[in-house]
Design goal:
The complex is a heterodimer of chains A (223) and B (294).
Chain A (H helix, E strand, L loop, with lengths): L2 H34 L2 H32 L3 H29 L10 H30 L4 H25 L5 H36 L11
Helix pairs in contact in A: 1-2, 1-3, 1-4, 2-3, 3-6, 4-5, 4-6, 5-6
Chain B lengths: L19 H5 L14 E12 L2 E12 L3 E5 L6 H7 L10 E9 L2 E2 L7 H7 E4 L10 H11 L6 H11 L3 H4 L12 H13 L5 E5 L7 H14 L4 E5 L3 H7 L2 E9 L5 E10 H6 L4 H7 L5
Parallel strand pairs in B: 2-10, 3-8, 3-9, 6-7, 7-8
Antiparallel strand pairs in B: 1-2, 1-4, 4-5, 9-10
Helix pairs in contact in B: 4-5, 4-7, 5-7, 7-8
The chains are: A mainly alpha (223), B alpha/beta (294).
Protein backbone atom coordinates (compact mmCIF):
# COMPACT_ATOMS: atom_id res chain seq x y z
CA UNK A 1 0.00 0.00 0.00
CA UNK A 2 1.05 3.55 -0.75
CA UNK A 3 3.96 2.29 -2.82
CA UNK A 4 4.42 5.70 -4.42
CA UNK A 5 4.94 7.38 -1.06
CA UNK A 6 7.29 4.60 0.08
CA UNK A 7 9.39 4.98 -3.05
CA UNK A 8 9.63 8.72 -2.51
CA UNK A 9 10.63 8.26 1.15
CA UNK A 10 13.29 5.73 0.14
CA UNK A 11 14.61 8.15 -2.46
CA UNK A 12 14.63 10.95 0.13
CA UNK A 13 16.63 8.86 2.61
CA UNK A 14 18.99 7.59 -0.09
CA UNK A 15 19.78 11.15 -1.11
CA UNK A 16 20.53 12.20 2.46
CA UNK A 17 22.76 9.15 2.98
CA UNK A 18 24.77 10.20 -0.07
CA UNK A 19 25.07 13.74 1.34
CA UNK A 20 26.27 12.23 4.63
CA UNK A 21 28.87 10.10 2.87
CA UNK A 22 30.17 13.12 0.95
CA UNK A 23 30.19 15.27 4.09
CA UNK A 24 32.24 12.74 6.05
CA UNK A 25 34.64 12.65 3.09
CA UNK A 26 34.76 16.47 3.00
CA UNK A 27 35.60 16.66 6.71
CA UNK A 28 38.37 14.08 6.35
CA UNK A 29 39.84 15.82 3.28
CA UNK A 30 39.57 19.25 4.92
CA UNK A 31 41.55 17.95 7.89
CA UNK A 32 44.20 16.56 5.54
CA UNK A 33 44.34 19.90 3.74
CA UNK A 34 44.70 21.69 7.07
CA UNK A 35 47.42 19.66 8.70
CA UNK A 36 49.25 18.25 5.67
CA UNK A 37 48.77 21.32 3.39
CA UNK A 38 47.58 19.06 0.61
CA UNK A 39 46.27 20.99 -2.39
CA UNK A 40 44.62 17.85 -3.67
CA UNK A 41 42.76 17.42 -0.37
CA UNK A 42 41.74 21.09 -0.45
CA UNK A 43 40.22 20.65 -3.91
CA UNK A 44 38.53 17.39 -2.91
CA UNK A 45 36.90 19.18 0.03
CA UNK A 46 35.49 21.91 -2.18
CA UNK A 47 34.25 19.42 -4.77
CA UNK A 48 32.50 17.31 -2.14
CA UNK A 49 30.82 20.38 -0.63
CA UNK A 50 29.46 21.43 -4.03
CA UNK A 51 27.87 17.99 -4.38
CA UNK A 52 26.48 18.13 -0.83
CA UNK A 53 24.91 21.50 -1.59
CA UNK A 54 23.24 20.13 -4.70
CA UNK A 55 21.97 17.15 -2.69
CA UNK A 56 20.75 19.50 0.04
CA UNK A 57 18.65 21.49 -2.45
CA UNK A 58 17.28 18.35 -4.07
CA UNK A 59 16.31 16.95 -0.65
CA UNK A 60 14.50 20.17 0.21
CA UNK A 61 12.62 19.93 -3.07
CA UNK A 62 11.68 16.30 -2.35
CA UNK A 63 10.42 17.19 1.14
CA UNK A 64 8.33 20.02 -0.31
CA UNK A 65 6.82 17.71 -2.89
CA UNK A 66 6.05 14.89 -0.40
CA UNK A 67 4.40 17.31 2.04
CA UNK A 68 2.33 18.92 -0.71
CA UNK A 69 1.17 15.76 -2.46
CA UNK A 70 1.31 12.90 0.02
CA UNK A 71 0.19 14.58 3.28
CA UNK A 72 2.31 12.18 5.36
CA UNK A 73 1.29 11.43 8.96
CA UNK A 74 2.61 9.51 11.96
CA UNK A 75 5.99 7.81 11.27
CA UNK A 76 5.96 9.08 7.66
CA UNK A 77 5.53 12.64 8.89
CA UNK A 78 8.28 12.23 11.49
CA UNK A 79 10.59 10.85 8.82
CA UNK A 80 10.01 13.83 6.54
CA UNK A 81 10.51 16.32 9.39
CA UNK A 82 13.64 14.50 10.58
CA UNK A 83 14.93 14.41 7.01
CA UNK A 84 14.55 18.18 6.73
CA UNK A 85 16.67 18.75 9.85
CA UNK A 86 19.25 16.08 9.08
CA UNK A 87 19.64 17.54 5.60
CA UNK A 88 20.40 20.92 7.15
CA UNK A 89 22.87 19.55 9.71
CA UNK A 90 24.78 17.57 7.12
CA UNK A 91 24.98 20.52 4.75
CA UNK A 92 26.24 22.79 7.57
CA UNK A 93 28.89 20.23 8.51
CA UNK A 94 30.11 20.15 4.90
CA UNK A 95 30.21 23.93 4.88
CA UNK A 96 32.33 23.86 8.03
CA UNK A 97 34.71 21.48 6.27
CA UNK A 98 35.23 24.08 3.54
CA UNK A 99 35.93 26.74 6.15
CA UNK A 100 38.53 24.45 7.71
CA UNK A 101 40.17 23.75 4.33
CA UNK A 102 40.44 27.47 3.63
CA UNK A 103 42.38 27.96 6.89
CA UNK A 104 45.18 25.62 5.75
CA UNK A 105 48.50 27.38 5.99
CA UNK A 106 52.00 26.17 6.90
CA UNK A 107 53.24 27.30 10.31
CA UNK A 108 56.05 29.87 10.54
CA UNK A 109 59.45 28.34 9.76
CA UNK A 110 60.76 28.12 13.32
CA UNK A 111 59.94 24.77 14.83
CA UNK A 112 57.52 24.89 17.69
CA UNK A 113 56.84 22.18 20.19
CA UNK A 114 53.32 23.57 20.35
CA UNK A 115 52.86 23.12 16.62
CA UNK A 116 52.82 19.34 17.00
CA UNK A 117 50.36 19.53 19.88
CA UNK A 118 48.01 21.75 17.87
CA UNK A 119 48.15 19.82 14.60
CA UNK A 120 47.75 16.49 16.40
CA UNK A 121 44.67 17.82 18.14
CA UNK A 122 43.25 19.18 14.87
CA UNK A 123 43.88 15.88 13.10
CA UNK A 124 42.19 13.99 15.93
CA UNK A 125 39.21 16.35 15.81
CA UNK A 126 38.86 16.01 12.03
CA UNK A 127 39.10 12.24 12.07
CA UNK A 128 36.66 12.04 14.95
CA UNK A 129 34.28 14.50 13.25
CA UNK A 130 34.21 12.43 10.03
CA UNK A 131 33.65 9.28 12.08
CA UNK A 132 30.80 10.96 13.98
CA UNK A 133 29.06 11.98 10.76
CA UNK A 134 29.33 8.38 9.49
CA UNK A 135 28.03 7.03 12.82
CA UNK A 136 25.09 9.46 12.81
CA UNK A 137 24.16 8.58 9.24
CA UNK A 138 24.39 4.90 10.10
CA UNK A 139 22.02 5.52 13.03
CA UNK A 140 19.64 7.21 10.59
CA UNK A 141 19.85 4.24 8.25
CA UNK A 142 19.22 1.76 11.06
CA UNK A 143 16.68 3.98 12.88
CA UNK A 144 18.79 3.69 16.03
CA UNK A 145 17.22 5.92 18.70
CA UNK A 146 20.09 5.34 21.12
CA UNK A 147 22.94 6.77 19.05
CA UNK A 148 22.57 10.20 20.68
CA UNK A 149 24.29 8.98 23.84
CA UNK A 150 27.30 7.57 21.96
CA UNK A 151 27.63 10.66 19.77
CA UNK A 152 27.37 12.97 22.76
CA UNK A 153 30.26 11.11 24.36
CA UNK A 154 32.32 11.39 21.18
CA UNK A 155 31.40 15.07 20.98
CA UNK A 156 32.85 15.61 24.44
CA UNK A 157 36.15 14.17 23.21
CA UNK A 158 36.10 16.58 20.28
CA UNK A 159 35.34 19.45 22.62
CA UNK A 160 38.28 18.49 24.82
CA UNK A 161 40.69 18.49 21.86
CA UNK A 162 39.39 21.91 20.94
CA UNK A 163 39.96 23.19 24.48
CA UNK A 164 43.50 21.76 24.32
CA UNK A 165 44.14 23.75 21.14
CA UNK A 166 42.83 26.95 22.70
CA UNK A 167 44.85 26.45 25.90
CA UNK A 168 48.02 25.72 23.93
CA UNK A 169 47.64 28.74 21.71
CA UNK A 170 46.88 31.04 24.64
CA UNK A 171 50.02 29.79 26.42
CA UNK A 172 52.33 30.66 23.50
CA UNK A 173 54.17 33.93 23.87
CA UNK A 174 52.96 35.40 20.62
CA UNK A 175 54.92 38.44 19.59
CA UNK A 176 55.75 37.22 16.10
CA UNK A 177 52.98 38.51 13.76
CA UNK A 178 53.39 35.50 11.42
CA UNK A 179 52.99 33.11 14.29
CA UNK A 180 50.05 35.10 15.61
CA UNK A 181 48.27 34.79 12.27
CA UNK A 182 48.89 31.05 12.03
CA UNK A 183 47.75 30.50 15.61
CA UNK A 184 44.51 32.41 15.10
CA UNK A 185 43.77 30.41 11.95
CA UNK A 186 44.26 27.15 13.86
CA UNK A 187 42.00 28.47 16.62
CA UNK A 188 39.24 29.01 14.07
CA UNK A 189 39.88 25.64 12.44
CA UNK A 190 39.36 24.03 15.84
CA UNK A 191 36.14 25.95 16.25
CA UNK A 192 34.74 24.74 12.89
CA UNK A 193 35.76 21.13 13.47
CA UNK A 194 34.13 21.29 16.88
CA UNK A 195 30.89 22.36 15.15
CA UNK A 196 31.05 19.30 12.88
CA UNK A 197 30.72 17.13 16.01
CA UNK A 198 27.72 19.18 17.12
CA UNK A 199 26.01 18.65 13.78
CA UNK A 200 26.52 14.89 14.06
CA UNK A 201 24.82 14.98 17.50
CA UNK A 202 21.98 17.01 15.97
CA UNK A 203 21.49 14.28 13.35
CA UNK A 204 21.33 11.60 16.07
CA UNK A 205 18.79 13.64 18.04
CA UNK A 206 16.55 13.82 14.98
CA UNK A 207 16.83 10.06 14.58
CA UNK A 208 15.67 9.71 18.18
CA UNK A 209 12.68 11.92 17.35
CA UNK A 210 11.99 9.90 14.21
CA UNK A 211 11.90 6.64 16.17
CA UNK A 212 10.24 7.74 19.42
CA UNK A 213 8.24 10.81 18.43
CA UNK A 214 9.81 12.62 21.37
CA UNK A 215 11.99 15.66 20.79
CA UNK A 216 14.25 16.99 23.52
CA UNK A 217 13.57 20.48 24.72
CA UNK A 218 9.91 20.54 23.79
CA UNK A 219 7.55 21.56 26.58
CA UNK A 220 6.67 18.51 28.64
CA UNK A 221 9.37 16.37 27.04
CA UNK A 222 13.01 15.57 27.75
CA UNK A 223 15.21 18.45 28.92
CA UNK B 1 25.85 27.48 0.13
CA UNK B 2 26.01 30.93 1.62
CA UNK B 3 28.55 31.67 4.27
CA UNK B 4 26.02 32.33 6.97
CA UNK B 5 27.17 31.22 10.35
CA UNK B 6 25.54 28.31 12.08
CA UNK B 7 22.41 29.72 13.56
CA UNK B 8 22.31 30.21 17.29
CA UNK B 9 19.60 27.61 17.78
CA UNK B 10 22.00 24.91 16.60
CA UNK B 11 24.84 26.05 18.82
CA UNK B 12 25.58 23.50 21.44
CA UNK B 13 27.43 24.55 24.56
CA UNK B 14 30.41 22.33 25.02
CA UNK B 15 30.64 19.97 27.96
CA UNK B 16 26.90 19.42 28.37
CA UNK B 17 26.08 15.74 28.49
CA UNK B 18 22.83 14.99 26.74
CA UNK B 19 20.57 12.80 28.77
CA UNK B 20 19.56 10.00 26.44
CA UNK B 21 17.46 8.49 29.21
CA UNK B 22 15.22 11.53 28.95
CA UNK B 23 14.52 10.56 25.36
CA UNK B 24 13.91 6.92 26.07
CA UNK B 25 11.50 7.72 28.90
CA UNK B 26 9.84 10.98 27.98
CA UNK B 27 7.27 12.71 30.06
CA UNK B 28 4.03 11.85 28.33
CA UNK B 29 1.80 14.82 27.63
CA UNK B 30 -1.50 15.27 25.83
CA UNK B 31 -4.15 13.81 28.08
CA UNK B 32 -7.10 12.48 26.12
CA UNK B 33 -9.51 14.45 28.26
CA UNK B 34 -9.29 18.10 27.25
CA UNK B 35 -8.69 20.27 30.30
CA UNK B 36 -11.76 21.67 31.95
CA UNK B 37 -14.27 19.83 29.77
CA UNK B 38 -16.95 17.68 31.26
CA UNK B 39 -17.69 14.12 30.26
CA UNK B 40 -20.84 14.05 28.12
CA UNK B 41 -20.81 10.38 27.14
CA UNK B 42 -19.17 7.63 29.12
CA UNK B 43 -19.39 4.33 27.25
CA UNK B 44 -18.25 1.18 29.02
CA UNK B 45 -18.14 -2.16 27.30
CA UNK B 46 -20.57 -0.88 24.70
CA UNK B 47 -21.46 -3.34 21.93
CA UNK B 48 -24.07 -3.86 19.25
CA UNK B 49 -25.46 -6.98 17.63
CA UNK B 50 -27.58 -7.14 14.51
CA UNK B 51 -29.86 -10.19 14.51
CA UNK B 52 -27.51 -11.83 16.98
CA UNK B 53 -24.37 -11.16 14.95
CA UNK B 54 -21.92 -8.99 16.82
CA UNK B 55 -21.05 -5.82 14.88
CA UNK B 56 -19.27 -3.92 17.63
CA UNK B 57 -17.85 -5.00 20.95
CA UNK B 58 -16.39 -3.69 24.20
CA UNK B 59 -16.08 0.00 23.42
CA UNK B 60 -14.79 2.02 26.36
CA UNK B 61 -14.86 5.63 25.27
CA UNK B 62 -15.51 8.97 26.88
CA UNK B 63 -16.68 11.96 24.88
CA UNK B 64 -16.15 15.42 26.27
CA UNK B 65 -18.08 18.65 25.95
CA UNK B 66 -17.04 21.56 23.76
CA UNK B 67 -14.75 19.44 21.63
CA UNK B 68 -14.96 17.76 18.26
CA UNK B 69 -14.43 14.01 18.54
CA UNK B 70 -13.79 12.21 15.26
CA UNK B 71 -14.42 8.50 14.75
CA UNK B 72 -12.25 7.04 11.99
CA UNK B 73 -11.60 3.56 10.67
CA UNK B 74 -12.12 1.30 7.67
CA UNK B 75 -15.51 0.28 6.35
CA UNK B 76 -17.29 -2.16 8.63
CA UNK B 77 -15.38 -1.13 11.75
CA UNK B 78 -18.54 -0.09 13.56
CA UNK B 79 -17.91 3.63 13.82
CA UNK B 80 -21.33 4.61 12.44
CA UNK B 81 -22.92 1.88 14.55
CA UNK B 82 -21.22 3.39 17.58
CA UNK B 83 -22.38 6.90 16.61
CA UNK B 84 -25.96 5.70 16.32
CA UNK B 85 -25.74 4.28 19.86
CA UNK B 86 -25.22 7.79 21.16
CA UNK B 87 -28.75 8.92 20.31
CA UNK B 88 -30.48 5.55 20.19
CA UNK B 89 -30.83 5.58 16.44
CA UNK B 90 -30.04 1.87 16.47
CA UNK B 91 -33.43 1.39 18.13
CA UNK B 92 -34.94 2.09 14.73
CA UNK B 93 -33.02 -0.73 13.05
CA UNK B 94 -34.87 -4.06 13.26
CA UNK B 95 -32.81 -6.74 14.99
CA UNK B 96 -30.33 -4.31 16.55
CA UNK B 97 -29.46 -4.91 20.20
CA UNK B 98 -27.15 -2.75 22.32
CA UNK B 99 -25.25 -4.08 25.33
CA UNK B 100 -22.85 -2.53 27.81
CA UNK B 101 -23.32 0.93 29.27
CA UNK B 102 -23.73 4.28 27.55
CA UNK B 103 -24.00 7.04 30.14
CA UNK B 104 -25.06 10.50 29.03
CA UNK B 105 -24.23 13.09 31.70
CA UNK B 106 -24.08 10.12 34.08
CA UNK B 107 -27.48 8.75 33.14
CA UNK B 108 -27.94 5.43 31.35
CA UNK B 109 -29.21 6.28 27.86
CA UNK B 110 -30.73 2.83 27.62
CA UNK B 111 -32.41 2.92 31.03
CA UNK B 112 -36.08 1.94 31.28
CA UNK B 113 -37.30 5.49 32.04
CA UNK B 114 -35.51 7.14 29.14
CA UNK B 115 -37.64 8.62 26.35
CA UNK B 116 -35.86 7.97 23.04
CA UNK B 117 -37.55 10.99 21.43
CA UNK B 118 -36.20 13.27 24.16
CA UNK B 119 -32.77 11.71 23.65
CA UNK B 120 -32.84 12.52 19.93
CA UNK B 121 -33.96 16.07 20.66
CA UNK B 122 -30.96 16.67 22.90
CA UNK B 123 -28.58 14.69 20.73
CA UNK B 124 -29.15 15.78 17.15
CA UNK B 125 -27.86 14.05 14.05
CA UNK B 126 -26.73 15.08 10.59
CA UNK B 127 -26.36 12.45 7.89
CA UNK B 128 -24.05 11.77 4.99
CA UNK B 129 -26.46 12.95 2.34
CA UNK B 130 -28.30 16.20 2.97
CA UNK B 131 -31.95 15.26 3.52
CA UNK B 132 -34.06 18.41 3.75
CA UNK B 133 -37.80 18.00 3.73
CA UNK B 134 -39.48 19.04 0.46
CA UNK B 135 -40.65 22.19 2.16
CA UNK B 136 -39.50 25.80 2.43
CA UNK B 137 -36.21 26.69 4.07
CA UNK B 138 -38.15 28.23 6.96
CA UNK B 139 -40.39 25.20 7.44
CA UNK B 140 -37.44 22.85 7.47
CA UNK B 141 -35.87 24.68 10.40
CA UNK B 142 -39.20 25.27 12.15
CA UNK B 143 -40.24 21.63 11.82
CA UNK B 144 -38.60 20.31 14.99
CA UNK B 145 -39.70 23.18 17.25
CA UNK B 146 -43.28 22.90 15.95
CA UNK B 147 -43.43 19.14 16.53
CA UNK B 148 -41.98 19.58 20.01
CA UNK B 149 -44.31 22.44 20.88
CA UNK B 150 -41.51 25.04 21.01
CA UNK B 151 -43.64 27.59 19.23
CA UNK B 152 -42.78 30.80 21.06
CA UNK B 153 -40.66 33.27 19.04
CA UNK B 154 -40.45 30.80 16.19
CA UNK B 155 -39.04 33.39 13.75
CA UNK B 156 -36.23 34.19 16.16
CA UNK B 157 -35.55 30.52 16.73
CA UNK B 158 -35.32 29.88 12.98
CA UNK B 159 -33.05 32.89 12.47
CA UNK B 160 -30.75 31.89 15.34
CA UNK B 161 -30.48 28.32 14.05
CA UNK B 162 -29.68 29.51 10.54
CA UNK B 163 -27.12 31.97 11.87
CA UNK B 164 -25.43 29.30 13.96
CA UNK B 165 -25.31 27.06 10.91
CA UNK B 166 -23.64 29.91 8.97
CA UNK B 167 -26.46 29.94 6.42
CA UNK B 168 -28.52 32.98 7.40
CA UNK B 169 -26.79 35.50 5.15
CA UNK B 170 -27.27 33.24 2.14
CA UNK B 171 -30.98 32.51 2.66
CA UNK B 172 -32.46 35.36 4.68
CA UNK B 173 -34.14 36.86 1.61
CA UNK B 174 -35.71 33.61 0.45
CA UNK B 175 -36.84 31.81 3.57
CA UNK B 176 -40.06 30.77 1.89
CA UNK B 177 -38.26 29.24 -1.11
CA UNK B 178 -38.03 25.49 -1.41
CA UNK B 179 -35.12 23.89 0.45
CA UNK B 180 -34.43 21.56 -2.44
CA UNK B 181 -33.34 24.57 -4.52
CA UNK B 182 -30.28 25.06 -2.31
CA UNK B 183 -26.85 23.71 -3.25
CA UNK B 184 -25.66 20.48 -1.62
CA UNK B 185 -23.46 22.35 0.85
CA UNK B 186 -26.28 24.75 1.72
CA UNK B 187 -28.69 21.83 2.14
CA UNK B 188 -26.26 20.21 4.58
CA UNK B 189 -25.97 23.42 6.58
CA UNK B 190 -29.79 23.62 6.52
CA UNK B 191 -29.90 20.14 8.03
CA UNK B 192 -27.48 21.32 10.71
CA UNK B 193 -29.72 24.36 11.33
CA UNK B 194 -32.70 22.01 11.57
CA UNK B 195 -30.87 19.99 14.23
CA UNK B 196 -29.82 23.16 16.11
CA UNK B 197 -33.35 24.62 16.14
CA UNK B 198 -34.47 22.25 18.91
CA UNK B 199 -31.59 23.39 21.15
CA UNK B 200 -29.62 20.17 21.35
CA UNK B 201 -26.65 19.53 23.58
CA UNK B 202 -24.78 17.28 21.15
CA UNK B 203 -24.51 17.17 17.35
CA UNK B 204 -23.64 13.82 15.78
CA UNK B 205 -22.48 13.93 12.17
CA UNK B 206 -22.19 10.80 10.04
CA UNK B 207 -19.82 11.60 7.17
CA UNK B 208 -21.38 15.05 6.78
CA UNK B 209 -19.09 16.14 3.93
CA UNK B 210 -18.70 13.01 1.85
CA UNK B 211 -21.29 14.18 -0.68
CA UNK B 212 -19.96 17.75 -0.83
CA UNK B 213 -17.43 19.61 -2.98
CA UNK B 214 -14.25 21.01 -1.35
CA UNK B 215 -15.65 24.52 -0.86
CA UNK B 216 -18.82 23.26 0.83
CA UNK B 217 -16.68 20.86 2.85
CA UNK B 218 -14.53 23.75 4.05
CA UNK B 219 -17.68 25.67 5.06
CA UNK B 220 -18.96 22.72 7.10
CA UNK B 221 -15.55 22.20 8.70
CA UNK B 222 -15.40 25.88 9.68
CA UNK B 223 -18.86 25.47 11.11
CA UNK B 224 -17.80 22.48 13.23
CA UNK B 225 -15.05 24.60 14.78
CA UNK B 226 -17.65 27.24 15.70
CA UNK B 227 -20.27 24.76 16.88
CA UNK B 228 -17.96 23.16 19.42
CA UNK B 229 -18.02 26.40 21.42
CA UNK B 230 -21.67 25.74 22.25
CA UNK B 231 -22.15 22.04 21.59
CA UNK B 232 -20.44 18.70 21.81
CA UNK B 233 -19.68 17.48 18.30
CA UNK B 234 -18.99 13.89 17.25
CA UNK B 235 -18.24 13.10 13.60
CA UNK B 236 -17.72 9.94 11.65
CA UNK B 237 -15.46 10.52 8.69
CA UNK B 238 -13.68 8.47 6.04
CA UNK B 239 -11.53 11.48 5.30
CA UNK B 240 -8.58 11.26 7.67
CA UNK B 241 -7.37 14.72 6.76
CA UNK B 242 -10.76 16.02 7.81
CA UNK B 243 -10.37 14.37 11.21
CA UNK B 244 -6.87 15.83 11.44
CA UNK B 245 -8.18 19.30 10.58
CA UNK B 246 -11.25 19.56 12.77
CA UNK B 247 -11.09 17.07 15.63
CA UNK B 248 -9.65 17.64 19.09
CA UNK B 249 -9.90 13.95 19.90
CA UNK B 250 -9.73 11.10 17.41
CA UNK B 251 -10.90 7.55 18.03
CA UNK B 252 -9.71 4.83 15.68
CA UNK B 253 -11.95 1.80 15.17
CA UNK B 254 -10.96 -1.32 13.26
CA UNK B 255 -12.21 -4.77 12.43
CA UNK B 256 -11.28 -7.97 14.23
CA UNK B 257 -11.72 -10.97 12.00
CA UNK B 258 -12.43 -14.10 13.99
CA UNK B 259 -11.02 -17.35 12.55
CA UNK B 260 -14.47 -18.66 11.84
CA UNK B 261 -16.67 -16.00 13.34
CA UNK B 262 -17.91 -12.78 11.80
CA UNK B 263 -16.02 -9.52 11.48
CA UNK B 264 -16.46 -7.38 14.58
CA UNK B 265 -15.80 -3.67 15.04
CA UNK B 266 -13.48 -2.72 17.92
CA UNK B 267 -12.08 0.51 19.29
CA UNK B 268 -8.30 0.39 18.90
CA UNK B 269 -7.07 3.74 20.17
CA UNK B 270 -8.35 7.11 21.26
CA UNK B 271 -6.11 10.10 21.84
CA UNK B 272 -5.60 13.78 21.15
CA UNK B 273 -5.78 14.20 17.37
CA UNK B 274 -2.25 15.49 17.00
CA UNK B 275 -0.90 12.42 18.78
CA UNK B 276 -2.93 10.09 16.57
CA UNK B 277 -1.41 11.77 13.50
CA UNK B 278 2.16 12.19 14.77
CA UNK B 279 2.87 9.26 17.09
CA UNK B 280 -0.02 6.87 17.53
CA UNK B 281 0.54 4.33 20.30
CA UNK B 282 -0.95 1.35 18.48
CA UNK B 283 0.59 -0.27 15.39
CA UNK B 284 -2.82 -0.76 13.82
CA UNK B 285 -3.54 2.96 14.12
CA UNK B 286 -0.15 3.70 12.58
CA UNK B 287 -0.85 1.35 9.69
CA UNK B 288 -4.25 2.88 9.05
CA UNK B 289 -3.36 6.58 9.22
CA UNK B 290 -0.26 6.12 7.08
CA UNK B 291 -2.31 4.24 4.50
CA UNK B 292 -0.48 0.91 4.99
CA UNK B 293 -3.71 -0.73 6.08
CA UNK B 294 -4.79 -3.91 4.34
Amino acid sequence: MREGLQEELDELCGGIQEEGRLTAHAVAEATRALVDWSVEAFEATLAAEVEVTQGYLLTEQRVESILARQAPVASDLRLVLAALHINRSVERAAHNAVRVAHLATPPPRRALVEEAVITDALRAMGERGAEMIRTAMDAFERRDANATRLLSTLDELVDRENEKIADTILAIDITDPELRQWASRMLFAGRWLERVGDHAVNVAERVTYLVTGEAMGRPGEGA
Amino acid sequence: MDAQSDSAEHQRPTGIHLDAAAVAHPAVGGSVAPMGRETVFDCQGLGVRYHGTRALRDVDLQIHSHAVTALIGPSGCGKSTFLRCLNRMNDLIPGAAVDGACLYHGENLYGPDIDAIEVRKRIGMVFQKPNPFPKSIYDNVAFGPRVLGMKDSLDDRVEQALRRAALWDEVKDRLKSGALGLSGGQQQRLCIARALAVEPDVILMDEPCSALDPISTAAIEDLMMTLKNDYTVVIVTHNMQQAARVADITAFFSVDQGETGPRTGVLIEVDATDRIFTKPANERTEAYVTGRFG
